[in-house]
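Please review the protein record below. Tell me whether the encoded fold seems credible here:
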Amino acid sequence: MNATATSSTQTVLLDSAGAVVLDLVEVINANRQYLSEIDGAIGDGDHGINMSKGFSLCGERLRGMQPPPTLGTAFDTLALTLMEGIGGSMGPLYGSFFQAWADRLDGQATLDAARFRAALDEAVQAVADIGGAQVGDKTLMDTLVPARDAFATALDAGADFSSALDALVEAARAGQQSTRDLRARIGRSARLGDRSIGVLDAGATSCLLLLEQLARSLQRLLVSPPATH
């Protein structure tokens, strides 16, 4: 984090933040095997492969852009690439999630805590609308909803942007871990009934990786406006 960043004035300059999405590409590719192993316990075992395929294609498109994309453009590219390039339910779910971010950031110069909160609210709602899952169903919603709520709670309690992102990550991790004890109630793994208990959900895990990386990347880019006298 920039050492001069303080309090609620912390912002990210969006024109120079497109590389944040390349960080998301990197974290998914680095965990490709891990995600597929988790998915293999109660699913098709291809979650890591499919996610890596879509994120890698997005990375290729972003690296070919001149000038480098803004964060909003990078999210838009990621959303469209995932909708086109990932099979099953994850393409539409993550595509809708990142499209909500792109829509919220379109035409904006900076991202502050309030705008992040609004974007995250809309992104979580987009996933809920298209997937129909709720907390407790053993899906990525078990990571997303606690993370969203923790960020909002931290801001309402007076936390700055960076500290609220820390709260988001902590809640996302707890949510992901909670899926180990849940019985799948939606998706293909639901057919396993009680046999789905005892393992992590792959979608909740990829969601944790993405939220954690998003938070850490944004924290590195936080700046404060120059003091006025």
User: Anything to note?
Assistant: Residues 184 and 190 are 5 Å apart (CA to CA). The chain has nine helices and two strands.
